[in-house]
Amino acid sequence: MRMPGNLPPDIAEAYQAAAEKNVLAALNPDVFFGYFSVCSDGQGHGGNTTFPGLDWGQSAEALLWLGRKAEVLASWEYVKKFQREDGLLPFAIIPDIAGRTVTVNGRPLTADAGGAVFVHWVPGNPLRTLANVTFLLLAEAIFAQTADRKWLADQIPWLRGAAGWLRNQITAEGLMPGGGFYIERPARLEFDGVNQCYSTHAVERTARLFEAAGEAGPAARCREAAARLTAGFRRHFWAADHCVEYIHPERGPISSHGLTDVDWAAIATGIAGERQIAVLWPQLKDNHDFIFSGMPTGISTRPETYEDWEMQGIDRHDLAAMGRVWYLECWARAQMGDQAGIRRLLGVVAGVGKADGWSWQERYYSKRTGFIGAFRMGRYCEYPANFIRIVHRFLPPG
Length: 398
Known about the structure:
The protein is mainly alpha-helical. It has helices at 9-23, 55-65, 69-80, 130-146, 149-168, 193-212, 216-236, 261-268, 274-284, 323-335, 339-355, 382-394, and strands at 92-93, 101-104, 107-110, 116-117, 191-192, 246-248, 252-254, 320-321, 364-365.
């Protein structure tokens, strides 16, 4: 395990616990070499399930930082086998329901013969683009740490497929459809601002991978797609002094829930223009309304304002603080040079984890949502994995 040498004692202690008691503890070679679960005890969300939509990428990158390249490459080989002919990757691989349709909250969830799930049970199919974006960004993380050009060259067919599928989704207006990028309820149908930001970042970074592999054509197509998405965001995702959260196919732009994770994402990925960032940053920097139950970062500063139609009559599961949003906040702070803010938030997350026996929850709810404790999933690896990623990516070496 590579422990950075510049960490204050409380953050160093939390880093070690995040690694040893969570991310490394989730490795389970009894399933297959390279397998890791989303909960370190192998209980929550299935002990043999893989989630190529986000969870997989977060933990895999953390494992790379912890020196476990062999396991990450083995997991990569496992996931890429499930890529469809059109380039789409599954957001979940659930061997226990392979070849079957099961019911979740009264709605169908179907897995193919290998257990790959491509369509979400929530109406509108949120998370549609998530696996492809995660796949492309993990490829970038692997290459950044290994500089292995042979490995990169060998992955080109799969990267072409994943990037090509993503590019083919872009509308004539430069928008990326797909509903909620990393949330399910609300599903943010049909154009989610976080999706627009992450998709732009993913295809731009993939262009660099193609260039490194001597693939000029795919690189140029990715750069053109990134430019279209950037222009689309700046045209459609601005509401006077903050970002539009999502664009509903019938109700139009939704921007009524205060500041949201889209505002963090716009700064983090650089998709917002300079004038927009100048308006956003003073509102975001010291905003305590993103803290839910003592944890960063909630998806909105006004979670109580979401309406029932936005939840499609299901529940308010994702009106919460989550590690994925916290990562975006720290990324945005790094872009703005706010090292003090990043260190402060690392200390907050460290303190909550320590108080809970070095375990972190999947979600932390705000009392303002009236949805406290409904989904307490312990030993979830998202906060620990992102703790490691934030330390390495956003704190300067010292």
